[in-house]
Amino acid sequence: MPSVFETPEFQNYIVVAVTTIDELKNFVVNDLCQVVIVDFNTFKCDENEALGLCKTLNPKATRIVSKETKDAADIADAVNKYKVFKYINSTDDKNIGKYIYEVSDQFFNFKGQQIQLADVKKQNLLLEEMTMSLEKTIDDRTHDLEKAKKAVEEHVQTIRGINKFLLDLSSLVSVEEILLVLKNEFKKFHKILPPILAIQATNDTPKLIYFNGGNIHTHIISKLWPDVIDIRKNNILDQEFLANELGRPLGPVLSVPLNSEHGNYVLFIESTLNEDEMQSLFAFLGDRLKAVTMTLERIVLDQEIRSASYMWEATFDGIEAPIAIIDKSFQVLRGNRYFSADKKICYRSLGGENKVCKGCPVNEPSSLAVKSAKISLNQRTYFVHSYPISEAGDASEHFVNHYVDTTRSEKLAGQIIQNEKMSAVGHLADHIAHELNNPLTGIRSLSQVLIGEVSEEGTLKSDLIEVEKASMRCQRIINNLLDFSKGSEPSSHQSISISEVINKTLPFLKAVTGYFEQEIDLIDDDTVFMDSQLLQQVVFNLINNACQSMGEKGKLVIQTKKYSRDSDVWIELSVKDTGSGISGDNLKKVFAPFYTTKKEGEGTGLGLSVCKSIIEKYGGIIDVKSRLGVGSTFYVHLKSEEQ
Amino acid sequence: MNVLVVDDESIVRLALKRALVNLGDTVFEAANGEEAIEIWGASSIDLVFLDVLMPRLTGPQVLEEIGEHSAKVVLISAYTGEYNMQRAKNLGANLFIAKPFADIFEVVNQGRGLVIGK
User: For the segment A475-528, what is each residue's pLDDT rounded down to a tens digit?
Assistant: First the structure.
C-alpha cells in the first residue's frame, strides 16, 4: 500500500511512496503527480519499464532517478532514453532528501517554466490567431470603411450638386431663368432636350415657356394642357398638346407635375433615355422637384406682391388729397405726393410752416377715437381727419391723417350765405317796395289833383309840384329797387353829370348838412353813363351817412376828380367826413347787407350795400378809407363817358 | 255818376275822390271788402275802383259776393303779373290799371270812359 505523507523537506508537496509497479502506474497517471523519484536502490524492478511507464503515462512529470552505481554509462542510457532530469547518486544519505527536493524544486520550477512557456506558447499562438483574425477584421472593416467613404463621397457630391442647384434657384427672379437653370442642370444627361415649362398661376393666363434655338419663348396657349397627376411617360395627350402648341412633332416626353397649391405647373422633358438612365433621371429629379416648385411659387408670389404693392402706391399717390402716416412727434412716416420728400415734419412738409398747426388733432391727448379738426395752413383751410392706428389696444402712437381741402367749399359756403342774405334783402326789398307803392301812389295822385286846383300865384303850386316830383322819384327808386331785386337790367341809362346830380341832391339834405362846414370841389367834365335816379340815391346815401357820423360838429368834403388807368378814363367821387371813423374789423363788413351801427329802428343797414350793388352794376367801384377818431372817406369810381 | 272807391290806403281813396268830385261825381268810399259790399248793395253804383289786395276780402272775392251787378269795374293793383287785363276780364272786371298811377287824371278818365261809353 502506498503511503501518503508530508515532510518538512518537501514543503508544499505531498509525497506518495509507492512500492510496486502497479501502484506506480496508478499514481503516475494522476495530473497532480509532478515529480517521480525512482530510487532503484529500494525499488526493485526493471528500470526501463518503470521509467518507460512514467514517461508514457505522464510525460510532464519530472523524472528523477536515484541509484547507487558507479557505472555512469548505465545510467546515461536510461537518462537519455527516458528523459530523466537528474540522476542522484544515493550514497549521500543525509542530504538526499534535501538535494532531491532542491533539484526537483528547480526542476519543478523548470518544468513549471516549461509549462509556463508552453502556456505562453499556446497563448502566443492564440494571440497570433487572434491577431490574425483581428487583422482580418481590420482589413474587412477598412474595406467597408473605404466602401462607405466612397459612398459618402458620392453622396456629398450629390448633395453639393443639389446645393448648387438650390443656390442657383434662390437668386432667380423670373420664370424664364428657372428654365435656363434646369436646362443647364440636365446637361449631364446628354440625351435630354431643353425642358418645357407649362405654368398657370391662379388668376393668371396659362402659358408655355420653352426654348426655340437659343432663346426662351413665352407662348399663350390656346387650350389648357391635360391633367397630369403623377409623373408619366409618353402620354399621348401630352404629346398631342405639345405638338399642337409648339408646331412641331415631339419625341418621347416625360411629364412631371410640380405639385403646388398656388397654381398648375407641369414640366415636360423630351428625351431618348433608356430604362436605367431614366431611373437615374427620376432620382435626380426627385431631389430637385420640390425646390423648383417652391422657387416657381416664390417668383409668382413675388410678382403678385410687386404689382399689388405698386397698385397700392399708385392709389396712395393718386388720391386727390394729402394723406400721410404721422407719429406723435409729427414725423411723416409715409406721405403721398403732397408731402415734400425731403422734409420729414408734417407741418413743414405740407405747408412750409415752422410750428404745429393750431387745432391739430395729433397734438391732443391720444385715444383710440377718430378725431377731426379744422386747421389753417398756407392760406388754405383743411378739415383734417386723424385715424389712430391701434397698436395692442393702447393709445396709439401713429395716425393716418387725411386732409380735405375745404378752402374752396368754405368760400362757396360764404358765397351762398352772402347770396342768401342778398336774396333775403331782395325779398325784403320786394315786399317793402310793394308796401310803399300804395301810399306813394296816393301821394302822387293827390299832389296832381291839388296842383290842378291851386292858383298860379304864390309858391303853393310850385311847392306842390316839387312834392309830386319827389313822390315820382320815390316811385322810380322803388321800381328800380324791384328791378334790381329781380336781377333784371337797369331801367335807364343816361349821360349824366355827377356834379349835376350832387347839386340836385344837396338841397334835400339841407336838414342834415346844415350843421357842418362844407367843402364842395367838383370838376366840370364828369359825365358818366348810368341811371340818374340811382346815382342820386347813392349820393344821397353817402352824404347822409357822412353827416350822421359827425354828430354836432364837423367838416364835410365832397370832391370829384378824373384819372387814367389802363387806357381808361375814370372819375372818382369822394365823400369825406370828420366823424368817429370805422374800425378795421367793421371796415370789411361795412358794405354787407344789414350791417349797421345805428340803433334799432334808426337804419336798416341796407343803404351802403344797395349803393355797392348799384355802382357795381354800372361797372364801377365803391371803396372806403377810415381812421378811428379822424374820420372816413367813401370813394366811388365810375368810368367816364368820354374815353 | 255814382262811383265807389274801394282801397285800404286812405290817401289813394282821397286822391281818387278829389279827382272825381272835381268832375262832378258822387263818390262813395269803402276801406275794405265788407264795407264795399254793404255800400254797393245799398246804393246804385255806376263805376267801381276796386283794389285787389286788401286784408280779409280781396277785390275778386268782393266781385264774387256781389254777383250780378250793373256797374263798370276797374281793378287796381300794385302787383302786376298775376293780375292783368285778361285776369281782370275773367274775374268779371272791365279794366285793369296798375299802381303806381302815372297820372291820376288818366286813370279817372279811363274809368269814366267805360260808363260813358267813349
Answer: 877 877 776 666 544 456 778 889 888 888 887 777 777 778 889 999 888 888
* Residue of chain A nearest B51, judged by CA positions: A438
pTM: 0.40
Q: Which of B14, B22, B103 sits opposite A442 (nearest CB)?
A: B14
Q: Which of A87-96, A211-220, A471-480 is the least confident region?
A: A87-96
Predicted confidence band at A593 (pLDDT cuts at 50, 70, 90)? low
User: Which residues in chain A have Cβ-Cβ distances shorter than 8 Å to B105?
Assistant: 448, 452
**CATH assignment of the domain containing A449:** 1.10.287
CA torsion A445-A447-A448-A450 (nearest 10°) is: 120
- Both A226 and A334 in one domain: the answer is no
Do residue B15 and residue A475 have CB atoms under 8 angstroms apart?
no
Domain count, chain B: 1
B12/A452 touch (CB, cutoff 8 Å), yes or no = no
> Angle, to 10 degrees, between the axis of helix A21-29 and the axis of helix A47-57?
20
Nearest to A62 by CA among A20, A92, A106, A98: A106
> In the 8-state DSSP scheme, what is residue B58?
-
Chain B residues touching A476 at Cβ < 8 A: none
Q: For A366-398, how does the pLDDT look when each residue is reduced to its tens digit (9 = 90+)?
A: 777 788 888 888 788 888 888 888 766 666 688
Structural domain boundaries enclosing A619: 491-643
pLDDT at A596: 63
Decide which of A286, A313, A340 is a domain's last residue: A313
CATH code of A18's domain: 3.40.50.2300
A464–chain B nearest CA distance, Å: 14
Cα atoms found within 13 Å of the Cα of residue A554, Cβ hemisphere only = 22
- Final residue belonging to a domain, choices A473, A488, A503: A488
Cβ-based neighbours of A72, under 8 Å, separated by 6 or more: none
Total domains present in chain A:
5
Nearest CA in chain B to A453: B22
Question: Domain for residue A629, yes or no?
Answer: yes
Q: Determine whether the interchain pair B99/A448 forms a contact, defined as Cβ–Cβ distance below 8 Å.
A: no
Give every residue of chain B whose pLDDT is below 50, as ranges: none
Residue A165 in domain: no
Indicate which CATH number applies to the domain containing B77: 3.40.50.2300
More confident residue, A624 or A5: A624
For chain A, list residues whose CB is within 8 angstroms of any CB belonging to chain B: 434, 437-446, 448-450, 452-453, 475
Specify if A150 maps to a domain: no
Chain A residues touching residue B101 (CB < 8 angstroms): 441, 444-445
B68 exposure class (CB count in 10 Å sphere: 0-12, 13-18, 19+): exposed
Nearest CA in chain A to B13: A442
A618 and A509, same domain (yes or no): yes
Evaluated on CA atoms A436, B14, B5, A465, the torsion sign reads negative
Name the residue range of residue B105's domain: 2-116
